[in-house]
Write a structure and sequence with these properties.
Elements: H1 2-23, H2 44-51, E1 54-59, H3 68-73, E2 76-79, H4 85-88, E3 89-91, E4 96-97, H5 100-111, E5 115-123, H6 124-128, H7 135-140, H8 148-166, E6 173-178, H9 193-198, H10 201-213, E7 218-223, H11 231-245, E8 252-255, E9 258-259, H12 266-278, E10 282-290, H13 301-318, E11 322-327, H14 361-371
Parallel strand pairs: 1-2, 1-11, 2-5, 5-6, 6-7, 7-8, 8-10, 9-10, 10-11
Antiparallel strand pairs: 3-4
Bound molecules: (3S,4R)-3-hydroxy-2-oxopiperidin-4-yl beta-D-xylopyranoside.
(3S,4R)-3-hydroxy-2-oxopiperidin-4-yl beta-D-xylopyranoside (XIL) binds near residues 80, 81, 130 and 287.
Amino acid sequence: MKFFLIGAACLIVTISGVLYIKMRPLEFERNYLSSQIEPEKILIREKSDEIGFFFGASAGEPTHVDNNLYAKVFNSTTPTNALKLGSVIQDLNTMTYDFSESDAYVDIAREAGLRVRGHALVWGKLSDQYKSPDLQVWLDSLPKDANRSERLSNLVSSHIKIMLDRYRGKISQWDVINEPLALFGDGELEENVFLRHLGESYISNAFALAHELDPSLRLFINEQLNNYTGDRAQAFYALVEKLVSEGVPIHGVGLQHHMLFFVESPEATQKYMQKFSKLGLQVEITELDARLRLFKDAGDPYIAQGQYYRDIVDACLKVSACTGVTLWGYNDEDVWHKDMAWLFPEPNEPYLFDEQNRAKPGLSLINARLKL
Ligand code: XIL
């Protein structure tokens, strides 16, 4: 008994020690503060426009566009949430929408000359995980004799039509399907509300309808992959290849590229993007962020993070089919990882500007890459 208690105590101390080392907040020196880039030297947007490359940031509201620095850096923006079902729909039964927020976003962005990426039309996790809205709960609330598959299918079709009509001529690239794969699987489709009720064809049907409604649109499938060599990455490629071979009107692949626990190499990223280019598809990095903590062993983590972003931009520029890189945020004041602080201990600080809007090293490094 005594040995058992000593053993258990040792185990607890060891686990607590490992957890402390892994999770304790860290702070790194901000050497970049002493060498801020002069705004007039920032030519990222100008150069991007020149070569037909889209460099973007997502935002809750596009208020940053008034900012002088923003205007020199980005020529594209993705509404973080404003175009998602839960943000626009008011009543699922009557299909009543409120577009005040999404319209304002799109108008402000377009006035500032930014391209707007449409994100996202059909996203299982938005319902099942974020419950925004929970479509299963809605289906369960329907009368017993209602045909649930038909109701869900009608909802999806109406939603696609309503969104594409509303933003016709304003948004030319849409994530039609977002995150079709199970997050922690080996590449199987996620068992989400759409797969359960509509089967695998929910994917091809959404593309076919969007294309029929507006053939000028560039239609994307968007996915988060933690690396580009494992089973999930191969399965995602196989899924896209199958859609293409079946003649599904899909034009592009969005790689979210959230680097949460591991940093995938720019080389592997480039190779993977190249595969889609061989299928005749367009590719974009759509939600780039890499937690600062992942660079903790570098001499200067801020520089290492900036070099990583520069190298991802470089990887994209080397693949002719890669048309853009979008960061999943603008400055470190508004960081989505904070919602899951227990999983993502500080520092996350993933963006190109710090919480006080000062440029971080990635900005000068990307600037230098684009000037070549
Ligand atoms: C996230 C937003 O950043 C959060 O504000 C929101 O609560 C949930 O969605 N993959 C995606 C994005 O495709 O839409 C997600 O954005 C992040 C993961």
